[in-house]
Amino acid sequence: MKNTVPLAFSDHNHEKCRAASINAAYRQGLRLTKWRQLVLDLLLEDHRSMGAYEILEKLECHGVKPQPPTAYRALEYLVEHGLVHRIEKQNAYVACARPDMCRNAGFIVCKTCRKVAEIEYASSEADLLHIAAESGFETKSAIMEVEGVCADCQKSA
Amino acid sequence: MKNTVPLAFSDHNHEKCRAASINAAYRQGLRLTKWRQLVLDLLLEDHRSMGAYEILEKLECHGVKPQPPTAYRALEYLVEHGLVHRIEKQNAYVACARPDMCRNAGFIVCKTCRKVAEIEYASSEADLLHIAAESGFETKSAIMEVEGVCADCQKSA
DNA sequence: TGTACCGGTGTTACACTATAACGGTTTTTT
DNA sequence: AAAAAACCGTTATAGTGTAACACCGGTACA
Description:
2 copies of one chain form a homodimer.
Chain A: H1 14-27, H2 34-44, E1 50-51, H3 52-58, H4 68-80, E2 84-87, E3 92-95, E4 105-110, E5 116-120, H5 127-134, E6 138-149, H6 151-156
Chain A binds a DNA duplex (30 and 30 nucleotides) through helix 4.
C-alpha cells in the first residue's frame, strides 16, 4: 500500500483527474452517450459522492429533465466499466479517481462533506479475498469502506 | 488472520452460536425487549442475511403484526450493540457470529443463498484504517464485504 | 403520594432509492 | 438492406427507511 495521502483530502490538479477519466474511457473504446457524459461530468466535478436523485436533479439536456431510469442506466454503465464507483454506505456514487489502474479499491468517505478518498490495495493484502477463494467461493465484487469525519469537517464543527 | 474455514459455509454446532449471542447480550447488560428478542432469534436461526421487510413479515407476537419502525428500531439497537451486522451490499442484516470478540469484521456473502461468513481481521491488516487515521480522519465505522457465489451454490447451478 | 422523566411501543404518513416493463429510435452487425 | 443489439423516453411501481406524535409503564426523587 503506497498511498499515504488520500487524494480527495489534499490539494491537487483536479483537471488531471478529469482527463484521466476521459482517456480511460477512450482507451477502452467505451461509448459515452450524452447522458453518460453528463453524469460522468457531474461526478468528475469533485471527489464527492452524489446520490442518484441528486444527480438526476442536476441532469438536463436541451431543457429536458430525464426520469430516474435515465440516471440509473448511465450509472450502471459507468460503474460496470469502472469509471464510477458506488459507495454502499451512502447509496451514492463517485467518479473513479484512478481509472487507469483500478483493481481493488477501498474508500474513505466523510459523512459530512461527502468527500471520498479512493485507495488501491494490493490484492495480496486482501485477506478476505484469499479466504473466499480458498473455500471455493467465486467472488463477483468486493468493497471496503471506512466512514467517518474528515479532518476539515472536524475543524469546522 | 487465523480464520481459514468460514463458519457459515461449514458444518458446525449452531446452538453454540445462539448461546454465544445470548451470553454476550447478558454480559453487556443489554435490554432485550420482546421485539429485540424476536428479531435476534430470527437472525440467529441461520448464518443468512435477511432484509428488514422479510424480518417484519415473520415478526409477530400474540397475533400482532408490527409496522416497519418496530423492526428498524430493534435492528438499530442490535446493530449498535454488536449483536447484528448490516450487510450493505444487500441492504440486509445478519446475526453476529462472534459476539465475544467482534472488533473488525469482514463478510463473505453469497448472492444466491445469502449465507454470510464473518471474518475477523487484525486491525494491523486494515490499511485503510491506518491511512484514514494518519490523515486526521475520525473513523466511525468500517466495512469489508466480498460478494459472490459460494461453493455449494456453484454446484447447484 | 405524587410527578417528572425516560425508554420503549403503536401508528400514520411519508421520503428516498431503485427497477420492471413496454414501445420507439438509433446504432451496429451481418 | 435486413436483422440484431443497444439506447432512450415514459409510466408505474417495488423496495428500503424515517419523521413525528401519542401513549404507556417503570423508576427516581421531591
